[in-house]
Write a structure and sequence with these properties.
Shape: globular
Mean pLDDT: 96
CATH superfamily: Nucleoside phosphorylase domain
Strand content: 25-35%
Strand order of the largest sheet: 5-8-7-6-9
Low-confidence stretches: none
CATH architecture: 3-Layer(aba) Sandwich
Number of domains: 1
CATH class: Alpha Beta
Structural class: alpha/beta
CATH topology: Rossmann fold
Number of helices: 7
Largest sheet: 5 strands, mixed, barrel
Order of helices and strands: EHEEEHEEHHEHEHEEH
Helix content: 25-40%
């Protein structure tokens, strides 16, 4: 088995929620799962397995960015038998009507990364998309619950956190992209390769153009909406 996750066979469920932050993985496991057991502390990238409403669920941190997320996604799918992975993370809004604390569900993920260009040898501009069943379930759940406003649309997975220009984000916004994050395109691509289901649900932690940010003390309470939608969607 891998030396990045380091779990034993059978310790990881077929359904995995994947936050970037390992401490958020710990919080999700302790807050939402029954009988959660930590199966990995390798590189402090925590992983837990427990049950939610009687269903076995794992929570696995992925780190920041597509290179890190790709390692954990690949190993979950190729070595541990995961069949469903839902990224639950944060994103920056680039639309006026998508506000801090809102939730975004990603239909597809544009990207400025060269990972897929290299994967397809420059011969194909691959469009990574979510699993439709998960997407529909999450959107239906979001439409019939109280909580943060939810937007469904395209997101942008960027390789750059501190960039020198916002021009690319402005152009993406003109073409309807809702928000920017750093992992979804890799997740969707690898899920397609391994014939698994994948979805990305993000809480808007900041607005890139308005320089607004969610205070740190509010993040856990606000992120609960996103996690509840994700857990509901994987049970449908």
């Amino acid at each position: 088995m891998s030396n990045h996750i380091g779990a034993k066979p059978g310790e990881i469920a077929e359904t995995v929620l994947m936050p970037g932050d390992p401490l958020r993985a710990k919080w999700i496991a302790e807050t939402f799962l029954d009988d959660a057991v930590c199966y990995s502390t390798v590189r402090n990238m925590f992983g837990y397995t427990g049950t939610y409403q009687g269903h076995r669920i794992s929570i696995q941190g992925s780190g920041m960015g597509m290179p890190s997320a790709s390692i954990y996604t690949h190993e979950l799918l190729a070595e541990y038998g995961a069949k469903t992975i839902v990224r639950v993370g944060s994103a920056g809004s680039i639309q006026e009507n998508v506000n801090v604390r809102d939730v975004v569900i990603g239909i597809g993920a544009a990207t400025d990364s060269s990972m897929n260009a290299n994967r397809f040898a420059g011969q194909l501009h691959y469009a990574p998309v979510a699993d439709y069943g998960l997407l529909r379930a999450a959107a239906d759940l979001a439409a019939n619950r109280d909580g943060a406003p939810v937007h469904v649309g395209q997101i942008l997975s960027s390789d750059v956190f501190y960039g020198d220009s916002l021009d690319t984000y402005k152009r993406a916004a003109e073409y309807g992209v809702l928000a920017v994050e750093m992992e979804a395109a890799a997740l969707y691509t690898l899920a397609a390769k391994f014939k698994a289901r994948a979805l990305t649900i993000c809480t808007i932690s900041d607005h890139i153009f308005r320089e607004e940010a969610l205070p740190a003390e509010e993040r856990e309470r606000t992120f609960a909406d996103m996690v509840e939608i994700a857990l509901g969607a994987v049970l449908v």
